[in-house]
Design brief:
The chain is of the alpha/beta class. About 35% of the residues lie in helices and about 25% in strands. The strands form 8 sheets. Strands 25-24-23-26-22-27-28-29-30-31-32 form an 11-stranded mixed β-sheet, with helices on both faces. A 6-stranded mixed β-sheet has the order 33-34-38-35-36-37, sandwiched between helices. A 5-stranded antiparallel β-sheet has the order 19-14-13-20-21.
């Protein structure tokens, strides 16, 4: 078997609009295509022996054991690979269960689709599932243990931590979109100008001064002392020579820790003598960047963490370091092993608790207590194994929020304001948190910026607290979702022009617009990225930009099939049309499949948003059946029955009627403008441009723009190299005219043909090119249409070969021309630059030269160069 490609879907996609995290593997079974599972001796038995838990896979049978039944009856290896990929993720404690295997359109080639929790794990599982399947086919042994551990390690390396993850989950539950900004914990909540950021539990609203203070324990302690907060007596030293004096001043028992430490690093507690203090000092030095070390009184009591968010105490936990309790017969090592069998304990942060690991520090603590790993503890004797109570080192937590004394609660909230932190964790040592510190002789040990939430989200004992909800309440009060208006546009032709027109109208209405097109990404009309930018990465680029408050996103089939959309929901989804283009690519072989791809856009519209659909296109109109939002329709025929039906029930439509582009609310007409007066339509001759205007005015109306604002936008959207590059760009030379257009498929050529027919010229010369990833019949049709349109055809072919040769593509076009008109004058000039030069230098008076280019910037630059030469009187024509 051969893996052709592995892609990860991260947003709504062709396979599932609602399941965003999918791996799509294109798998060529090669010789195994002729060997379903029931034809391989012993395969079913080996599979069941290796994965007995697969009995729970229901598959299409709908009952337990359904998948094994399919295997016994005979199913293809791609299907089995899908189930193995899901099962090994589950065995690695990432339970996920969505899968599909479908034919790719080529014999023996399948799209294997399955869900993942972490992308790196999903990709790994895809490769390993194929290897496991091949081992089962050959009857070879395969050890899963290393793969399972590797997947766990990948997950811990890539996943968001429990604190960040909880905030993200809470945001998602409230409909707040988010984007991960780096491979760590920096995340954006909301879009564009309405975004907020978090990094673990530090937010974009967290005071940088507060963070600096919390990281400097000396300053924190000083401020708290000045505010009459109970803190331990202590001293700050930097040299070992000062240690003895500090110990005498504070008095044993001691705690020694770095001033700038965090997460328990470099802390030693309950130090009883100078020798222990010396070791602790050196340990703290290793964890300190500044070299400043705190020597303070060790307060007797339990370790409590008070969590304050937005100056309100929201949770409190009693923390206990990792420990074992003797039973009078088991060794320390055996007791640790028994504790680690607790199903709540796992690797890293994968579960509520973390497994207790044995490192040098643990061995030293055991040794200091007078034991070894082989020692047997007396019954009920407790042995502490770590010097901090952090859950990440195996500690446990008990929720005590409801018993915190009001005086302690008030103190914690006051401390958050003194240190100026919107989210802070306050560590307290006291014998009883239900009594004021003044009564228990307890003390505040430190204040932490970016405190962990894990102990509060999933305490070992007590009530879990949704502390992430308080963070979201602060960042997005009163139900705010942090969204900005998103208009997404798909279709075979007209996407880019419609995108640009809507962006222009929104900008004219006062919005700061970011938009993506097939020629680049624009932020407030500034081109910041060039090239085909119609995929998810470009969409995210716009949605990340903090200056943007209105997004218009052209969304092409390529990005949808490769990675899904770069957003989960939009406010308006437009589909201009669906025509045969790109068929035979990425497993899409029919126009119906292509329509399903483009139908993802309207299916992602928010319930109160609008899907704007072309009522003249059957495939587009049928998309209304799968949407869960409002529907608006547009048509070039006001008498279209589909338009009339929607108008009768009070729907919104846009039509071309009596020479006007007209909005309709119900059956009431609101004429926006005469089509002939809209510059984009070239005096009304470019009917396909009129069609592009209709969804644009629908969008404007839905977004609350007035008719006057729409008209102003349409009047000022001038077709030009800057506004609409490659879309009907006309260059008037002294004796001839050049028209440059992006028409690159039969539907686009037919639309261009109708426009060109409206233009007067003594002779019409057209330059065309084939595209390597189109079907033979598509390139043939391009040639045939050119033969109808032009008096002379120039074939050029130096770009977009995409797997074919120049000669093959030229022959496809030429064959199409000859099918229509065997005597059509045809000139073959492979180089686009040379072809354009030939056409212009051989232009006759009154001629129209139509250049169909797919690399617009290069063609525009060359035509403009010739225009400049003519202006200077330097343009030389051929004899």
């Amino acid at each position: 078997m051969n893996i052709r490609s592995i892609n990860a879907m991260r947003g709504p996609n062709y396979w599932s609009v609602r399941r965003h995290k999918l791996i799509v593997m294109v798998l060529d079974l090669e010789e195994m295509e002729d060997f379903p599972s029931n034809k391989i001796e012993g395969f079913s038995e080996r599979l069941k022996e290796m994965f007995p838990s697969m009995y729970s896979h229901r598959c299409s049978e709908g009952s337990e054991g359904g998948f094994f039944k399919r295997v016994d009856e005979g199913t293809w290896m791609g299907h089995i690979v899908e189930h193995i990929a899901l099962e090994i993720q589950t065995l690695a404690d990432m339970d996920t269960g969505f899968g599909r295997t479908r034919g790719y359109g080529e014999k023996g080639v399948y799209s294997v689709v399955f869900s993942y929790i972490e992308e790196s794990v999903g990709r790994f599982a895809a490769k390993k599932a194929v290897e496991i399947c091949e081992a089962l086919i050959k009857g070879e042994a395969y050890d899963l243990a290393d793969d399972i551990q590797k997947m766990r390690e990948l997950r811990e390396s890539d996943r968001l931590g429990p604190s960040t993850g909880s905030i993200i989950e809470e945001a998602e539950s409230r409909g707040i979109p988010w984007i991960r900004l780096n491979k760590y914990s920096l995340c954006q909540l909301g879009y564009g100008a309405n975004q907020k950021r978090i990094q673990a539990t530090v937010t974009s609203e967290t005071s940088s001064i507060g963070v600096e203070l919390a990281c400097d324990k000396e300053d924190t302690k000083y401020l708290l002392e000045q505010a009459e907060v109970d803190v331990p007596r202590g001293d700050i030293i930097r040299r070992e020579s000062s240690l003895e004096e500090a110990c005498n001043y504070v008095g044993f028992p001691l705690v020694i820790k770095p001033v700038d430490g965090n997460h328990g690093r470099g802390i030693t507690v309950d130090i009883q003598n100078y020798e222990e203090a010396l070791i602790a000092f050196r340990n703290a030095k290793e964890s300190s960047k500044s070299g400043a070390i705190i020597v303070e009184k060790f307060i007797v009591g339990d370790d409590y963490r008070l969590l304050v968010i937005n100056n309100v105490l929201v949770a409190a936990a009693k923390r206990t370091p990792a420990h074992v309790i003797g039973d009078g017969k088991s060794s320390v090592q055996e007791l640790i092993d028994e504790v680690n069998k607790d199903p709540r304990r796992g690797y890293g942060h994968e579960k509520v608790l973390t497994q207790i690991t044995i490192n040098e520090l643990t061995k030293n603590i055991i040794k200091d207590a007078g034991y070894t790993l082989d020692s047997v503890l007396a019954k009920d004797e407790m042995l502490v194994l770590k010097d901090t109570a952090n859950l990440s080192t195996g500690g446990t937590a008990e929720d005590v929020t409801d018993i915190v004394h009001p005086a302690n609660r008030s103190m914690a909230e006051r401390i958050s304001k003194i240190i100026d932190l919107d989210i802070c964790g306050i560590d307290i040592m006291t014998t009883d948190i239900s009594k004021p510190l003044s009564e228990t002789q307890g003390a505040v040990l430190e204040v932490n910026a970016g405190p962990g939430f894990r102990m509060h989200l999933s305490p070992t004992k007590g009530l879990p607290r949704n502390v992430a909800g308080h963070v979201i309440d602060k960042l997005f009060p009163k139900g705010n979702t942090g969204r900005i208006p998103i208009v997404a546009i798909s279709g075979t032709n007209g996407k880019t022009t419609t995108t640009r027109l809507i962006a222009h109208m929104a900008k004219m209405n006062g919005h700061r617009v970011g938009y993506t097109t097939s020629d680049g990404v624009y932020i407030q009309n500034r081109l910041l990225m060039t090239g085909d930018c119609t995929g998810p990465a470009s969409a995210e680029f716009v949605l990340k930009d903090p200056t943007v408050n209105f997004a218009v996103l052209e969304s092409a089939r390529g990005g949808l099939l490769r990675a899904g959309l770069g957003f989960k929901k939009c406010d308006i989804g437009i589909v201009t049309n669906v025509a045969a283009d790109h068929l035979g690519l990425s497993g899409i072989h029919t126009i119906e499949q292509l329509a399903k791809v483009k139908g993802v856009i309207p299916e992602t519209v928010l319930p109160d948003g609008y899907a704007i659909l072309n009522a003249d296109d059957d495939l587009v109109y049928n998309m209304r059946r799968n949407v869960q939002c409002n529907v608006a329709l547009f048509s070039m025929d006001e008498n279209n029955p589909r338009i009339k039906a929607l108008q009768r029930i009070g729907g919104i439509t846009a039509v071309y009627e009596n020479g006007y582009v007209t909005l309709c609310r119900g059956e009431w007409k609101m004429r926006v403008m005469k089509a002939a007066d809209i510059p984009l339509t070239h005096g009304g001759k470019a009917k396909f441009m009129i069609q592009n205007v209709l969804p644009a005015i629908l969008t404007a109306n839905i977004q609350g723009m007035s008719i006057e604002d729409m008209k102003a936008g349409l009047e000022t959207f001038i077709p030009s190299v800057n506004q609409t590059p490659g879309r009907l760009n006309l260059f008037e030379f002294k004796n001839f005219t050049v028209l440059l257009d992006y028409a690159h498929n039969p539907a686009g050529m037919r639309a261009l043909q109708k426009f060109v027919a409206e233009l007067d010229a003594t002779v019409k010369v057209g330059m065309i090119a084939g595209i390597g990833d189109r079907r033979i019949e598509d390139n043939n049709e391009m040639g045939s249409i050119a033969a109808e349109m032009f008096d002379e055809v120039i074939i050029r072919q130096d770009k977009r070969l995409r797997g074919k040769t120049e000669e093959e593509l030229i022959n496809m076009l030429n064959d199409g021309i000859k099918m229509k008109d065997p005597n059509k004058k045809t000139t073959i000039i492979p180089s686009e630059k040379e072809a354009i030069t030939y056409a212009i230098k051989n232009a006759v008076k009154g001629s129209l030269i139509i250049l169909c280019s797919d690399v617009i910037p290069d063609a525009l630059d060359l035509v403009q160069k010739f225009k400049d030469l003519e202006t200077r009187g330097e343009l030389v024509f051929a004899d």
